[in-house]
């Protein structure tokens, strides 16, 4: 089994606020495996208080787990490319908005700049998706990302097929296994799973 000891893992959080609480236990597992985690926050996570928690609370939690201040701006993350800082970048949760921008080359946040900078080095980008329109208008963006070299996905499925038939969410408990596979340039299988 691939060890994470000494691996440098970027973790970018985007605004699927209802999913954030599922991500932090996985980050603790990654940290326990010996990886060094570099946190990145989208403007939504950085600035938005929601019924799922205050922005400052999410920031404090990521600092506690990673023991690092998060990168917040495009300027903060730009060195990821030229300095080859990360072995892998995980975007978790990865919203439909982030997927759409990534699939279409839009770089307007720290998270998207980190992805662009990281991909230029031909290193793995792992997405843990959470979107209400993954089987709707965002399906084409998901297909683009599935067919893009160096992009891997945490297995996902429909979280509420009857109530929200277009909604897709990754099975967050598979993040660690998917991360190990992506570091070996493999897509963990099966990709489609029940939630």
How do the helices and strands line up, and which of them pair or pack?
Elements: E1 8-13, H1 20-32, E2 36-41, H2 43-47, H3 55-66, H4 74-77, E3 88-94, H5 96-103, H6 110-119, E4 125-131, H7 139-146, E5 151-153, E6 156-157, E7 168-170, H8 175-183
Parallel strand pairs: 1-2, 1-3, 3-4, 4-5
Antiparallel strand pairs: 4-7, 6-7
Explain how this protein is built:
The protein is of the alpha/beta class. The chain has one domain: Rossmann fold. 35% of the residues lie in helices and 17% in strands. The chain has helices at 20-32, 43-47, 55-66, 74-77, 96-103, 110-119, 139-146, 175-183; strands at 8-13, 36-41, 88-94, 125-131, 151-153, 156-157, 168-170. Strands 1, 2, 3, 4, 5, 6 and 7 form a seven-stranded mixed β-sheet that branches. Helix 1 links the parallel strand 1 and strand 2. It is globular. The mean pLDDT is 97.
What features would you highlight for this structure?
8 helices; globular; 195 residues; alpha/beta; seven-stranded mixed sheet; Rossmann fold
Largest sheet: 7 strands, mixed
Relative strand content: 15-25%
Count helical runs.
8
Describe the oligomeric state of these chains in a short phrase: single chain
C-alpha Rg, in Å? 15 Å
Q: pLDDT below 50 for ≥5 consecutive residues: which ranges? A: none
Distance between the termini: 25 Å
Mean pLDDT: 97
Which CATH architecture? 3-Layer(aba) Sandwich
H/E series: EHEHHHEHHEHEEEH
CATH topology-level name: Rossmann fold
Using the coordinates above, name the CATH class.
Answer: Alpha Beta
What is the CATH H-level superfamily? Flavin prenyltransferase-like
Would you count the extended β strands for me?
Answer: 7
Shape: globular
Name the helicity range.
25-40%
